[in-house]
Design brief:
eight-stranded antiparallel sheet, alpha+beta, Lipocalin, 3 domains, single chain, about 25% strand
């Protein structure tokens, strides 16, 4: 009886199909059904159509009935609640004792122990933030890198110092000539001194170019008797040399000289020669590319001011007095 009420539309279609199929088979309907719908009599063609229609209605009603039955069964299985896990008795709550005449419930299996473990996947980092491991360097590339030449450090010192320099005003107690040459990344200076034999070799010394002014130092006979020379370029072809002589028990003795390079122009050499031959108070001023001198002045200061003023009028910065009378200006 439950199947007659769970799908009313399907049942109606099946019932109607039976009636039409009966009309097709017997040609008429009477009796109890005839008392409800009336006596039905059909011709030959009507019986055929009634039979076909009855078969279709029975098939359609059966399909609807089966489909509704499946939907009801799936809904009932999804709506059934899962059985609650029985909690184990604790020390504070004793297990309940079954009453007489009742059957104790079956023990609940240890679901947590027997149930399969759920494998939790480790979250992977974002591809954009993943640091790729550095590939090992190929042996061929490492060997090639070892064969590369070591970068050479830049040379020290001003290359304009390199060359032969001659003292403009040589005396028997002065340096006569120096030669500066490149030695590796540094510079060496070779010094000759004026002596009774015309020229005495003071040896080859390393030129220290770490400070503002290149300098060289050598000992005379012991470390307490020392000479230090300082070299300053006035122009690319004019060099100012200052010598400090240090000896125990005496104050430092300082001397100045002006040297010209072997590549100096003939016009500058003639200007120096004219200046050195002129009598009286005089001064020689110079800057890169220009020079000016004044001779026959009332005083050395007057000659200095005029020579410096004439040099600065040429518009070249860096004018300075290099000779005052016949000595290098300090």
């Amino acid at each position: 009886m439950d199947h007659l009420t769970d799908a009313p539309v399907a049942n109606i279609l099946i019932l109607a199909g039976i009636i039409f199929l009966a009309v097709g088979l017997f040609g008429r309907i009477g009796g109890f059904i005839g008392s409800i719908f009336g006596n039905i009599e059909a011709g030959k063609n009507s019986r055929v159509l009634a039979g076909i229609l009855g078969v279709l209605l029975i098939v359609g009603g059966g399909w609807l009935h089966e489909d509704s039955h499946k939907s009801a069964a799936s809904g009932a299985s999804s709506a059934t609640p899962a059985p609650a896990a029985s909690s184990a008795p604790t020390a504070s709550t004793p297990p309940s004792t079954p009453t007489a005449g009742t059957v104790p419930p079956a023990p609940t299996p240890d679901v947590g122990r027997d149930s399969p473990r759920v494998k939790v996947s480790t979250p992977q980092p974002s591809p954009n933030r993943t640091l790729q491991p550095r590939a090992p360097e190929a042996p061929e590339r490492a060997a090639e890198r070892e064969r590369l030449p070591t970068p050479t450090p830049p040379p020290l010192g001003d290359d304009r110092l390199v060359g032969t320099w001659t003292n403009l005003t040589p005396r028997t107690d002065s340096i006569k000539r120096i030669e500066i040459a490149r030695a590796g990344q540094g510079l060496n200076v070779h010094v000759w001194y004026s002596c009774s034999a015309d020229e005495c070799d003071l040896g080859l010394h390393r030129l220290d170019v770490s400070g503002r002014t290149p300098a060289y130092t050598y000992d005379l006979t012991d470390p307490n008797r020392r000479i230090t020379g300082y070299l300053t370029l006035q122009t690319p072809n004019v060099l100012h040399v200052m010598i400090d002589r240090l000896e125990p028990g005496t104050p430092p003795h300082r001397r100045h000289w002006v040297f010209t390079k072997s590549t100096i122009s003939e016009s500058v050499l003639r200007a120096f020669a004219t200046y050195l031959d002129a009598p009286g108070q005089k001064a020689f001023a110079m800057a890169p590319g220009v020079w000016s001198y004044q001779t026959g002045q009332v005083s050395a200061d007057d000659a200095r001011e005029k020579a410096l003023h004439m040099c600065e009028r040429r518009g070249v910065p860096g004018c300075r007095i290099i000779l005052l009378n016949d000595d290098a200006a300090q």
